[in-house]
Write a structure and sequence with these properties.
The structure is a homodimer. Chain A has 6 helices and 15 strands. Chain A is an alpha+beta fold. Chain A has one domain: Aminohydrolase, N-terminal nucleophile (Ntn) domain (Glutamine Phosphoribosylpyrophosphate, subunit 1, domain 1), CATH 3.60.20. In chain A, strand 2 and strand 3 (about 45-50) form a beta hairpin. The first copy, chain A, is globular, with a radius of gyration of 17 Å. At the A-B interface, strand 3 and helix 2 of A face strand 3 and helix 2 of B.
Chain lengths: ~260, ~260
Amino acid sequence: MCELLGMSANVPTDICFSFAGLLERGGRTGPHRDGWGITFYEGKGCRSFKDPLPSSESEIAELVKRYPIKSCAVVSHIRQANRGAVKLENTHPFIRELWGRNWTYAHNGQLSQYQRALRSHHFLPIGNTDSERAFCWLLDQVREKYPKRPSNMAPVFRFIASLCPTLKELGVFNMLLSDGVYVLAYCTNNLHWLTRRAPFGKATLIDSDWVIDFQQETTENDVVTVIATQPLTGDERWQKMNSGEWVLFKQGELVSRGGE
Amino acid sequence: MCELLGMSANVPTDICFSFAGLLERGGRTGPHRDGWGITFYEGKGCRSFKDPLPSSESEIAELVKRYPIKSCAVVSHIRQANRGAVKLENTHPFIRELWGRNWTYAHNGQLSQYQRALRSHHFLPIGNTDSERAFCWLLDQVREKYPKRPSNMAPVFRFIASLCPTLKELGVFNMLLSDGVYVLAYCTNNLHWLTRRAPFGKATLIDSDWVIDFQQETTENDVVTVIATQPLTGDERWQKMNSGEWVLFKQGELVSRGGE
């Protein structure tokens, strides 16, 4: 299994605190030694940092933890390989361009008998993970249904959510997907989220002794949602997602949700 | 104008020395203050570091300069904006997936009246530079001509080279393009290259006082080609490319060339 981390915010926000908690699980407090990656959106552009090295030993991860890149949408992943060797091309998040936008995706879980079920035409996997194949299949379905970019993207994400049960039937499919404006989370068995907004309080990482006082770091209008496989802090109320449930965030706010 | 830097090598080689020379031009010895980017291939995977900040002030650039990421194919760019604002989505290199491979591209120059001439369908620009539009147009032509991945990629690169004069007619088009195995360089007015092989000697950067003794850094079988807008070292013989000329490298060796 792997761990996912996502963020949606209404003002550019750094994710150093949450990312630091995730990184501890990349070889130190957790078994996820097979690489890590993180993608930050800035406008329509995005930049990714990736490493097939364990995150707890990665110099690049140290930089990202320390360097406050501010973003309104983030997708991150640390990997414990099951399908696909430990290589850069198998390291999440995966990115494709669709309609002149960057689409970013990360998956936690494992699929079976997916080779035939998940054929794609427009988008092809570069590595050999079940995860990237599922991503290409999802985007292929989207491109078939919407040959041109719709002006309203919320229905596109609801369409994607409607495809996820097909992937869940193939195994465990916990997922984060973003176009830089929306962040979609789909849960099979392990995904939690929380929204921070005024009045802000203090929070303590479970995996290290870092305590943050969000009151000092935010303005009263900030809305920041964090999504993670397991809660990252011990003193906040994380919402556990149900099996088959999906949630869609925009600018930190929950804009749509559904489930089986 | 911008500056390009590319590398093709037969063993994974770090580009710290050449990149350090390039970075000096990003705001210190040169006027290219509008961002920088570099893509390293590792197998079929690649990772990019990008920043809309001047490279001479970028903490991420400092890490890349110091941290020896070893690669057989590298594409890098520092930007002095002409078309398109200083934003992350306008920062080179640009990347797209075609046939399950990462294609990476950077452009130096400026095109005019390109909006109508360079329409594309499969690949769409994310930012608003002439450069990315030309990249999408090139890949669209390739996908039209080769709906499936050919087993031999050299003809694909020769086909791409045959399209470049059309772009040169629209203005200045110096370009680097790689699929991770081949590196293609096309010149309108400013591009130089050299191949380092045994017996290796010393080299001194023009833009700083860094001297390297490649004898100490290499084995006698290493073949490393560096391509740059302007020569990076003062004591080596760089080959200046002619207008309309293209060169194609694989594993450091020149495998094909042509021109008008």
